[in-house]
Amino acid sequence: MKSQIRSLIKKYAEVYGKFEALQDKDRKLLPGGDQKTGVIAEYYAKCYIEYSNHVVAEYASQGSPFDISYTSSSGQTIRVQVKAVSAHSKTRIIAPLRLFDAEGTKTFDDLYLVELGSNFLPVGFYINSFETIQNRALDPSRKRIQGSKMIDSTDQKKPGSSFFDFSENKVEELLRAIG
After folding, report:
1. How far lies 176's CA from each of 52, 66, 113, 171, in Å?
2. Do 79 and 53 contact (CB within 8 A), yes or no?
3. What is the pLDDT of residue 107?
4. In which residue ranges of the chain is pLDDT below 70?
């Protein structure tokens, strides 16, 4: 059993190292970060933005309160925050979502919620505007949402947190965008 575990660790390290190398090589291809579920989801989100809006999107710099930005056809800069959970997560808890920065400015325009299957391909994709989330949070001065949960599209008993609108699953559009 130990040799089987060592073999799995070796394979994981090889794939992880390949992700790291590609992330270091070209930040336009993949964003930085060591949480590979998030890296994969951000890549998918960027593909979706470029495919559906016919624009070039850019990953934000490390430490930014959003993950991706692009300029809309009307010339407006749109900032997108991406949150993801994979089927491997037992809790379905989404990483904390910061709504406002220290100056009280909203940190993103759209939130992309990406539900990944056990093969890390998307099974759920939901877009929420900042305003939708703020209205659902009930307290307009709320600065962050913590402990919220992603929907589980395979289990009706796990609908996800009420902060988010999971009514329109755009996964088919996302799958077309990623090819």
Report:
1. 10, 24, 17, 9
2. no
3. 97
4. none
Give the pLDDT of residue 141: 79
For the chain, give the DSSP string.
Answer: -HHHHHHHHHHHHHHHHHHHHHHHH-TTTS---S-HHHHHHHHHHHHHHHHHH-S--EEPPTT-SSSEEEE-TTS-EEEEEEEEEETT-SS-BPPPEE-B-TTS-BS-SEEEEEEE-TTS-EEEEEEEEHHHHHHHTS-TT--EE-S-B---TT-TT----TTS--S---HHHHHHHH-
Over the range 116-131, which residues count as b (16 or more CB within 10 Å of their CB) and which as e?
beeeeebbbbbbbebe
pLDDT for position 14: 86
pLDDT at 92: 94
Distance (Å, rounded) from C-alpha 165 to C-alpha 151?
10
pTM over 0.85: yes
Contact 16, 39 (CB under 8 A): no
Predicted local distance difference test score (pLDDT) of residue 26: 73
Tokens linked to 139 = 């307290």
